Amino acid sequence: MGTPNIRHVSLAQQRRSQRVLLSVPLMVSGVRENRTTFSERATTSVVNAHGALVRLRERVEMEQVLRLKNIATGEELDCKVADINRGQEERSEVGVVFIQPCPRFWRISFPPVDWSQRSPEAKRFAGSSPEATVPAKK
After folding, report:
1. Are the beta carbons of 82 and 95 closer than 8 angstroms?
2. Which of 10, 114, 127, 134 yields a CA-CA distance of 20 to 30 A from 89?
3. Domains of the chain: residue spans and CATH
């Protein structure tokens, strides 16, 4: 029986960048403990400027180096396994951290660390709708 995966509240306060729910198709490859290679098609469920949460069938270990290939762009980079939640399903949730920083890998702009729905920028858009920005015809 494995050790439960315990996450502390302070972990959220230590984040270096905002997390964004985003499904990005990837090819994840690596080398198993027995020195055989694997390659698996996967998708992210959450991304940030420093890594992602990926669902994998392949059993990986903490600190294992993996190669991610963004299928849409063809870009590849190395990362390390930073967190594993084996769960009850056949796929594990695997947190990975980029070895070399690459905030553009996901091709999105991340909100600043201090951003929230209470930020002035969010309030400008919260109540607006397309109809509100187009003058009514008389």
Report:
1. yes
2. 10
3. 10-112 (2.40.10.220)
Residues of 23-49 as b/e, b for ≥16 C-beta within 10 angstroms?
ebebebebeeeeeeeeeeebebeebbb
DSSP 65-113: EEEEEETTT--EEEEEEEEEE--SSSSEEEEEEESS--TTTT-SPPPPT
Closest by CA position to 90, among listed 131, 42, 52, 129 = 42
> How far apart (Å, rounded) are the C-alpha atoms in residues 56 and 44?
10
